[in-house]
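Backbone geometry:

***
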Amino acid sequence: MFTGLIEEVGTVRSVARATAGADITIEASTVLSDSGLGDSIACNGCCLTVTQMGAGSFAAHAGAETLARTTVGQWRPGTRVNLERALSAASRLGGHFVQGHVDGLGQVVSVTMEGDTARWRFSLPDELSPFVVEKGSVAIDGISLTVTEVSHGALAVAIIPHTVAHTTLGTLGPGDRVNLEVDILAKYVHRMLRAMQPAGGVTEEFLREQGFC
């Protein structure tokens, strides 16, 4: 579990491809201070397990599923990635609950400056739209952000200069792909409501049975 508050930006040192995935080495410093083998580190929002520790770097294995369904498959030596260690019980929850399980991919649509704040628009896959609401939370490349607007096929967030300076957002532009993770609470609520809904839809009889009439 993570918070979506990025601790540092690391750099991919190497990517060793294999038929079953890829072994990735990432240069870092802050996230290495109390990490060890088997620990989880969110890399651009993808929860990866540390398989090796080195001087100024760590290695992780990304399986075929991760390579196919996230931007990890595009990483090359020199790629900059957002890094965050797993949440500890004593940590402040300054962002929101982020699992590090990417739900889908989006693209940067546009960036519009509004004073010293930038309004970023990202494409939003239709299957994720029910889980995104205005003033709700979304993780974009692992960054916890507040949704300012939801429209058909897109969402918008307001980005302050600090976030741009301390994450990989400054390296992105229109057309670049990003990892999206919607709020886990929204997914649970959506699933429960679907389970409660009768096969024939919401009818007057169903509402009466539930005490609404």
Notes: The radius of gyration is 19 Å.
